[in-house]
Amino acid sequence: MNFKKVLRDTLTIKFDKAFGLDIGDRSVEIIELEKVFRFSIVTYGRTELPEGVVTNGRINDQNILAEKLKKLLKEAKPKKVSTNKVILSLPESQVFVQCFTVDAKLKSGSLTKAIVEKVSLSLPINIDKTYWDFIEKPLADKTKKLVTFISVPKDIANSYVKFCNSIGLEVVSLCIESLSLARTILKSSNRQSLIIDIGSGATNLSFFDSNDKINMSISIPVAGEQMTQAIMDKLKLDNVEAEILKVKQGFKEGGDNTVRPVIMPLIEEIIKEVEEAVDYYEKTFNQKLDDIYLVGGSALLPGISEVIKSGLKREVQLATGGLNINLNSLAGKGNNFPLFANVIGLGMLGASGEFRDLNLLKKMPSAEVNSVNKLNLFNMGYLSKVNAVRTIIDNKFVLVVMVAMVGVIFAVLLQQTKDLAPQESLTTNSVPNTAARIKLSAPIMSTSSAPVTGATGLIFDPKLRLFVSSTTKMPANKSTTTKAIK
Ligand SMILES: Nc1ncnc2c1ncn2[C@@H]1O[C@H](COP(=O)(O)OP(=O)(O)OP(=O)(O)O)[C@@H](O)[C@H]1O
Ligand SMILES: [Mg+2]
């Protein structure tokens, strides 16, 4: 057993953890995990968002989003989250990922320059308007290395952090959704994998190589929302009716399914884009895909896996669980996992305390990051009371005051001990014989008629080598001393 790891896990459970938060276009998920050998769920929740609150990853209505999230935090099951620290994923539709090779000799400044030159040609916005980072990876061809570049518009990242801060949450990491999904889903590190996340506004494709590193990412602007819209238009239904019918019938085969023919062209559009992306990937990276996983709310549509499987002519599996995580408490009928896959990956980072690695938050200027008044957390009904303890431990000012108070108490106690010290030291150190100690506790005759017992009231005169009553003035001729030490 690795004791260091066990100790670290125990400490991170108590002091250094964060919960995961996934803000999608039409839903918000939270999860807090803990890790004792395996990950398990402490608490979780999901709520749907009305149309227009978040569009393409942009927060349009902070107030409604805040109300929804506070309610979700308040009603999280089986209890409230135990920390105000949060790990957030950036919306995949706003994240730009590009992989390319560079000369293996390029380092620091020259590497950065080469990367900026390369991505500036394809980045949809000016690189100065983004927070960006990159990962390097060695290649079989030793003269080259692979660079994975990741960026997000500054205004998007700033708006997510500011929003969290406005309701008392402290963002400790800004992650990429696809990397979070890979952490949750990919079971083996030596297989080429594609994760297809079919959400509400977009279908995101992420290709991972044998090291679980992302090689390519593509966003297709077709998903569940467009299907619902098509049903509304073709079958003349309102949004709620169309949504219910879509979830019930989906791609089930049979003449009585009125929904399938309406949404079939949309899934065919997705399949065509996936085919092209897979072809490009396999040629460019000279790899053969091993596994294809489906996640996201729309992956739960009845019959969708079969339609994608026959369209791609490849094996496709609905993601059902993670490698090292116990999902027993993820309630609900059937397989809820595709709805929570991304947030679980965020929660895993939060539970292991390893949220400082690839993190675009590090690229943000400190003025933009985390202006949370932690002491306000005491008044927040939607966070658990454990937060109060964490707040004290985390808040430097409160911690300094507490340490200072302990210091003062210690100093007072020390002073009191010192006040008693001369008598104590005489009895044990300065006076060499045990007889002296016996005499101290024996009744002693003083110049006053009342006997003085014990050490109280006695002082030692080193010149005379005598104990005298502290209430007695010593005469010059030493005649009235009480007892002499022999
Ligand atoms: N049980 C279900 N069966 C079928 N479809 C579902 C089910 N639950 C949710 N959906 C559909 O999934 C979509 C929402 O999925 P998800 O929560 O993954 O999206 P999101 O994360 O909010 O959006 P995005 O990832 O595009 O920003 C909606 O279109 C909804 O109709
Ligand atoms: Mg999503």
Structure description:
There is one protein chain. The longest helix is centred in the last third of the chain and has 35 residues. The C terminus is likely disordered. The protein is globular and about 95 Å long. Strand 11 and strand 12 form a beta hairpin. Among the domains are: 202 residues, Nucleotidyltransferase, domain 5, CATH 3.30.420; 86 residues, no CATH class. With 486 residues, it is α/β, with parallel strands linked by helices. 34% of the residues are buried. A six-stranded mixed sheet has the order 10-6-1-2-3-16. It is 38% helix and 22% strand. It starts with a helix and ends with a strand.
Write the topology of this structure.
Elements: H1 3-14, E1 19-23, E2 27-36, E3 38-48, E4 54-55, E5 58-59, H2 62-74, E6 85-90, E7 96-103, H3 108-120, E8 130-138, E9 144-153, H4 154-166, E10 170-176, H5 177-185, E11 193-198, E12 203-208, E13 214-220, H6 224-235, H7 239-249, H8 260-284, E14 291-295, H9 304-312, E15 317-318, E16 325-326, H10 337-352, H11 386-394, H12 396-430, H13 434-441, E17 458-461, E18 466-469, E19 483-484
Helix pairs in contact: 5-10, 6-7, 8-9
The protein binds adenosine-5'-triphosphate and magnesium ion (MG).
Short key terms for the protein model shown above:
Nucleotidyltransferase, domain 5; 6-stranded mixed β-sheet; 486 residues; 5-stranded mixed β-sheet; single chain; binds adenosine-5'-triphosphate; alpha/beta; binds magnesium ion; disordered C terminus; 38% helix
